[in-house]
Amino acid sequence: MDIKTKDEFIFFMQRACEDQCNDCYIELYNILLRAFISADIDFDGQVSEDEFEGMIAAANEFPKKFGFEWWAGSGKDQFRAIDENGDGGISFDEWLNFAYTHYQSQKLPVAFDMEERTEFVKSCKDSANTGSDSYKKIYWFSWKCFQAADADRDGQVSGSEFATMINVATSGQKRLGLPAPFQTSADRDALFAKMDENGDGAISYDEWLACFMKEIIAPVAAL
């Protein structure tokens, strides 16, 4: 994991807890899997009550690194809550479901695309300062848009993937009744052609970021 700051951790967890299809969820899945495997010291495919504290300790290392104590409390109570069938062992699916639900219940700042209208517009305005917290959360959101569209994971977005990126990028505006450009295929095609200056049929993330800030965020910031 290359997450180094609290802001990066928050964005990662916002994404991971949003759905089970994105890259951040897959990373979280692997973290929880490694915690499970490290605790299964007798290699029977389950975690017993004696092994449970080791799993919680391993899982807790990640949020604790950024100042979040999400696994405080009685280990015995947590074990019983997960071991619903009372067989004295926790399978990986039981652990995964419990831990994921537990993470979803934690309080995190509201993601940019989930903000209410007043805060959303303010974030767009404040993002003009590239050193601001608003710019950082909009930057991370732009990655969400890019990753959602980059279906083949080649690090670029093709013309056929571009509509997905625009749909994600303007979802907040459409929800809030704010300016949401490029909603027709003709408009999207024209924008893509404008961005694809070398005509190779793909755009890079830095090209997308510049376009996103100018064409999608700036109209809201101008309100």
Would you summarize the structure shown here?
By secondary structure, this protein is mostly helical. It contains eleven helices and four strands, in the order H-H-E-H-H-E-H-H-H-E-H-H-H-E-H.
What does this protein look like?
The protein has 223 residues and is mostly helical. 61% of the residues lie in helices and 4% in strands. The chain contains 11 helices and 4 strands. It has helices spanning 6-16, 23-39, 49-64, 75-82, 92-104, 117-126, 133-149, 159-169, 171-176, 185-195, 205-221, and strands spanning 47-48, 89-90, 157-158, 202-203. Strands 1-2 form a two-stranded antiparallel sheet. It has a two-stranded antiparallel sheet with strand order 3-4. The longest helix is centred in the N-terminal third of the chain and has 17 residues, at 23-39.
Relevant terms:
223 residues; mainly alpha; two-stranded antiparallel ribbon; 11 helices
Major sheet details: 2 strands, antiparallel
Low-confidence stretches: none
Strand order of the largest sheet: 1-2
Terminal CA distance: 39 Å
Give Rg in angstroms: 21 Å
Helix and strand pattern: HHEHHEHHHEHHHEH
Q: Look at the helices and sheets and give the structural class.
A: mainly alpha
Q: What is the average of the pLDDT values? A: 93
Percentage of β-strand residues:
under 5%
Overall geometric form: elongated
The assembly state of the depicted protein chains is single chain
Question: How many distinct helices?
Answer: 11
Number of strands: 4
Helix content: 55-70%
